[in-house]
Amino acid sequence: xxxVTQTPRYLIKTRGQQVxxxxxxxxxxxxxxxxxxxxxxxxxxxxxxxxxxxxxxGNFPGRFSGRQFSNSRSEMNVSTLELGDSALYLCxxxxxxxxxSGANVLTFGAGSxxxxx
Amino acid sequence: xxxxxxxxxxxxxxxxxxxxxCTYTDSSSTYLYWYKQEPGAGLQLLTYIFxxxxxxxxxxxxxxxxxxxxxxxLRIADTQTGDSAIYFCAESILKTDKLIFGTGTxxxxxx
Lengths: 117, 111
Known about the structure:
The complex is a heterodimer of chains A (117) and B (111).
Chain A: E1 5-7, E2 10-13, E3 19-24, E4 31-38, E5 42-50, E6 53-57, E7 64-68, E8 74-78, E9 87-94, E10 107-108, E11 112-116
Parallel strand pairs in A: 2-11
Antiparallel strand pairs in A: 1-3, 3-8, 4-5, 4-9, 5-6, 7-8, 9-10, 9-11
Chain B: E1 4-6, E2 9-13, E3 18-24, E4 29-37, E5 43-50, E6 55-58, E7 61-66, E8 71-76, E9 85-93, E10 99-101, E11 105-110
């Protein structure tokens, strides 16, 4: 069964531009969450979507946004890019997300590495 | 508050056991997880433990949880060079997909 697919894997942007990253979850998984990984801040939660609704949101500025489509695929967008936005952006999917029973077993994609110049 | 701490580096000889430690602060954590990240890759779930358990064993992996001290450890028996990676502990708050990750421990295995 296919894993979590993130595109693009690598991209380079300049300050002020915007970027859209895509995530296709594992088939049957309805929850998608996004994380930012940087050397300085480590892994930080961005947001979680379930059935096209944002359920949880991390402590990031409004320049970071996301959405989820009816087929559970998700996109995140960062506008007005800053140098500090350079990071590995990881997407994860799970069956039920928040409120589900049992452990939240997240399956992560390989990530999209964004470099802002 | 939410804060998860790990030591940054661990170096072990091939065949020895590795013990990676983690401390967390949120007593409402329901599940605690261990993830592995290899270079250029995403995170791979290794194992997890429910907060009312003390220990969980899964092949070469043993997880110990001391809830009173908020201390979690991962023991890897017979460590191999393929175990070289960064290991993250994480806690989930109220069974959400919002995981609070530790700083990560880089495990280096030498022959």
